[in-house]
């Protein structure tokens, strides 16, 4: 069975993501928000499509600044829906703005989005999915699984024999603490 670790290395988009981001622990709230927005936008599309549009997403969403996106109004929503550089899906755009406000609430209640994730770790994937569905919009099982794997909260981003796995383990991702 072919895995991401087999086909990503050397690819112009998948390679850098595989080698430097996927599965590495993320602590910065804007970067966590970025991953959540990218995973939401991948729903129904290929990851390559999202990676190719990543720079446009970053520009459209003010480098994924939680505070700035949370303040978006109808004018900003219309701007996003007219931006051909990103995925112009009303439900995904609305989810991004709504979820930015949720992250602000989590920052108020827990100190940060990362601290909220830490407060619920470790959970089994079905429990994470229930929690995310209660908390955020547009977060089904695949989105939650990929978000948590990509940010180091769940194992499985890389095969054990992938050289990147050793680098990730050295950074002590949250999932490593439950093995």
Automatic annotation (TrEMBL):
Pfam families: Adenine_glyco. It comes from the Bacteria. Gene3D superfamilies: Hypothetical protein, domain 2 (1.10.340.30). This is DNA-3-methyladenine glycosylase I. It comes from Chromohalobacter sarecensis. The lineage of its organism: Bacteria, Pseudomonadati, Pseudomonadota, Gammaproteobacteria, Oceanospirillales.
